[in-house]
């Protein structure tokens, strides 16, 4: 049994990682300031520390004796980062640096970082591999890229094993349609529950790559123990397919209304061959099945 920390472990993705770790028999500590996390997401077998990752002095003692750390804590709102670049940089970059330092000082074995496909911007190549030039189009995307660079440096300079997982569009149970991950699936479900039309920007032909949160949690656990990673590798975690907004609306059902398009990538699709090669990971949950379960 390992002692493990999950920052942001009361949030959407982090709480599923916590559950998977506890099911595997580990001692899990959650570090979360509860600004976006929810108490109902906290596994009763986990130990909750209500701490802001910007508070380095409070972080250091909690990391003592820890084997692995999953860093999920962040402000992952693109528009919010545009409106509040200094605040979000402080949390997403300085907060990450505090976590890295706590890992270094306490000789943690490995850190797994939640990065983002937003780093790619508007990709010219689909499916998109980790090797294409990056093009961050928001402070949030830049924060994630800075985080990836830091993880590679800490692996090279200090010997802290690190892995960067670039999430695509994550969906599943515990998503908050009003919170940090108001992805189209959650938004559509909320509109349906309120008996409102499903509003789609543009003509609905734009596509996204969706991956279920249970598959994301599995990828994280594989990254924790994988013997082919640990030097700051960057790995796409996505479904490996893309679906149009019109198709998603059709799966959920309801009347559709089209509104003005907005500035955003038209298409995203992950090349997940590296995840297969380095982690032995492939997504198991089909989008249709995942949405059907949410509809229940």
Describe the structure.
- This protein is of the alpha/beta class and 296 residues long.
- It has 2 domains: 3-169 and 212-237, NAD(P)-binding Rossmann-like Domain (Rossmann fold); 172-209 and 241-270 and 285-295, UDP-galactose 4-epimerase, domain 1.
- 38% of the residues lie in helices and 19% in strands.
- The chain is built from 10 helices and 13 strands.
- The protein has helices spanning 12-23, 56-62, 78-83, 85-105, 139-158, 184-193, 213-225, 245-252, 273-279, 287-295, and strands spanning 3-7, 27-31, 47-49, 68-71, 110-116, 161-167, 169-171, 198-201, 207-208, 210-212, 231-237, 243-244, 256-259.
- The strands form 4 sheets. It has a 7-stranded parallel beta sheet with strand order 3-2-1-4-5-6-11, with helices on both faces. It has a two-stranded parallel ribbon with strand order 7-10.
- Helix 1 (12-23) links the parallel strand 1 (3-7) and strand 2.
- Helix 1 crosses helix 7.
- The protein is globular and about 55 Å long.
- The mean pLDDT is 95.
Task: Look at the structure and give the CATH class of the largest domain.
Answer: Alpha Beta
In CATH, the homologous superfamily of the largest domain goes by the name: NAD(P)-binding Rossmann-like Domain
Strand proportion: 15-25%
SSE order, as H and E? EHEEHEHHEHEEHEEEHEEHEHH
Low-confidence stretches: none
- Assign the CATH architecture of the largest domain: 3-Layer(aba) Sandwich
CATH fold group of the largest domain: Rossmann fold
Q: Please indicate the count of domains.
A: 2
* Structure classification: alpha/beta
The number of helical runs is 10
- Summarize the amount of helix as a percent range: 25-40%
